[in-house]
Design a protein that fits this description.
Layout: E1 4-8, H1 18-29, E2 34-37, H2 46-52, E3 59-62, E4 65-68, H3 70-81
Parallel strand pairs: 1-2
Antiparallel strand pairs: 1-3, 3-4
Helix pairs in contact: 1-3
Length: 86
């Protein structure tokens, strides 16, 4: 199992949602990560609620770090891994 896990919505690409912006940032930084898609219905996301206390995605788990909110996750990625395509 990967140490870094991205919980995200079921959108099929990285083009249409905040989850995709995080996926693109991880890819640009060259981070190996596991993707876990969550149900569209928020009531079907007990794992997300357990991790963060709320039911929204994206959520990034990196070892002991749990970060939610796409902007905060992108900032974390930039600080930890940088953007290797710049």
């Amino acid at each position: 199992m990967a140490e870094t896990v991205l919980y995200r919505c079921g959108a099929p690409t990285n083009l249409v949602c905040a989850c995709g912006s995080v996926g693109k940032a991880l890819n640009r930084a060259g981070v190996e990560y596991e993707t876990r898609r969550v149900p569209a219905a928020r009531k079907g996301r007990p794992e997300i609620v357990e991790l963060t206390g709320q039911d929204r995605v994206p959520v990034l788990v990196d070892g002991d770090q749990v970060i939610h909110d796409s902007r905060r996750i992108r900032e974390y990625i930039e600080l930890k891994w940088g953007d290797r395509q710049r």
